Amino acid sequence: MLLKLVNIKKSYGLVPVLKGINLSVDTSKVVSIVGPSGAGKTTLLQIIGSLDTCDSGDIFFEGVNMATWNNKQKATFRNKKIGFVFQFHNLLPEFTALENVSIPALIAGNEKEQATNNAIELLKYFGLENRMYNKPSELSGGEQQRVAFARALINKPALILADEPTGNLDTHNATEMHKLIFNLRDDFKTTFIIVTHNKELAAMTDEQLTIVDGVMV
Ligand SMILES: Nc1ncnc2c1ncn2[C@@H]1O[C@H](COP(=O)(O)OP(=O)(O)O)[C@@H](O)[C@H]1O
Ligand SMILES: [Mg+2]
User: Measured in angstroms, how far is the CA atom of residue 27 from the centroid of ligand 2?
Assistant: First the structure.
């Protein structure tokens, strides 16, 4: 088991947002989370990714309780074990696709040449060998999102957390991205937790979860 959530609760002020979430995710699975706007989906992903903290409950990652980690351990966890993909790509506008993908590897302590070579390999895998030296504004929405996936994967994370990754793409690009997610699972044994409104994607996943009003239904 890669990830286990036990009775996760979170409030913002007096407003309960997550009301006791339990979740177990095995390695190399694609899990989708659907639910109406405001249900707590983004909050849950941010807690799993250690960008936010829960009020009570336990999260075990590879068997270790995340509550035992200090801030430095959490930062290492985010850099090496987790990849984030957002609805809007969040690429750094001043940097090329290649630089955007390389940066997390440099932060992880890789030599520049190694980081660059790994980033080139990934960009080729994503069919972006001709777009490596372009900046995000020079790329299409589909290309930007593929760069964002490459950036999320550069340090070979165990888990990708994706928050509506195809929400901003047209049908063709969304379908291509869906295929890519399952290829990544098969080729890299990556585990995915994907928040999505896309019924086609949700139907393809190994496990489909629904959150309504802070509760898994
Ligand atoms: N930082 C915050 N401060 C206060 N309320 C928040 C904050 N983040 C989210 N919320 C509230 O928590 C609820 C769940 O939000 P969110 O997790 O973003 O839902 P979803 O991603 O399912 O649309 C919403 O009512 C939202 O307004
Ligand atoms: Mg959200």
Answer: 24
